[in-house]
Amino acid sequence: MKFSAIIGQHKLKSQLINLSAEGRVSHAIMFCEDQGYGALPLAIAFAQYNSCPNRDGQDSCGTCPTCNKFQKLIHPDLHFAMPVSNTKKITSDKKPVSDHFIDVWRTSVIENPNLTEQDWYEEIGVENKLGLIGVNEATLILRKLSLRSFEGGDKYMIVWLPERMNHEAANKLLKLIEEPPAGTYIFLVSKSPEKILPTIISRCQIIRVTPLEIEELGNNLSQEFSITPADGIFWAKIAGGSISKAREIINESIEVSSSQELFLRLLEGCVTKDMVNVISVWEDLAISGRERQKQFCFYALEFIRRVYIMSMGIEEISNTPDSQRDVVSMWAKKIKPSFYSRGYDAINGALADIDRNVNSKYIFSDLSNRFFLSL
Ligand SMILES: [Zn+2]
Hints:
This protein has two domains: about 5-210, Rossmann fold (3-Layer(aba) Sandwich), CATH 3.40.50.300; about 245-375, Zinc Finger, Delta Prime, domain 3, CATH 1.20.272. Helices cover about 55% and strands about 5% of the residues. Helix 2 packs antiparallel against helix 3 (about 65-70) and helix 13 (about 290-310) runs antiparallel to helix 15 (about 340-355). Helix 7 (about 165-180) links the parallel strand 3 (about 155-160) and strand 4 (about 185-190). By secondary structure, it is an alpha/beta fold. Zinc ion (ZN) binds near residues 52, 54, 61 and 64.
């Protein structure tokens, strides 16, 4: 990964390049960030920069054999350790280590170097529990770093989320971090350094990765999501300069507008007795995933609540965003008072059925029928 492939962080990139030029690269560095500022790609790019024989004062060359291997994350002297857990895929080994997941890791990081911890657990199929960097992993790290360099250059160990090390693993690595073997660099990339043993932190040079430049992040978001540059900057600010946070809230907002579109089509179809339209809505819902279906139901509950409050003439407590005021007030005039409690019950029933894994077609055809009859 070249520095130029990483969004923003120009000041930090220059600092790292200067450290390298002055021969002051510490053997144990902790990159700290709030998730989504670019700490992991920066650590990888820094290792590549230091290893590239053709680097200049700005970046690694990106084309030499060393850079090629770094870019595919397959350089034999670039090692990774990250939190893992037992998953359905890894059942034979009771104590999983990073190497079991290295192929998924490479693909995931190349695709999204700013992946979140949650993204990672989803990639490896871990649900509802945290991964761990355990003592087996620590033993493996020590073994890997005790070997001679494969290609004659320096060796790099990037430990992603060292806060997931348990005490035993952390204690085992203390000496290594204090005095790494010659030509060995350990880069720790943490989003919660306060959870790491102080004895580890005190042995590292700390590099704080700060939020991304708003304008630059905004431009990136505008390209990624095909939104206007002004909207990109709006989301970049809301996300506090974190690309992963920005992606999360933009996706949420896209989901909200798609729930709104479906729900308004359903209401319109029921009121105008347009059965074809009603059926197309429940068919769309029936084939979307459970989370998406739940979001639709939560959106519908909130919309009905707002319309009800608006119909009572107490708009100020409906907490309706300006962009939705007209549509909410229009439906407040159209909907019969008897609908509110029936509509509410029907949606809560659908939510309960989704949790009980009832067939989606049944849930949403039933919900639509109830709406059709009571609107
Ligand atoms: Zn190179």
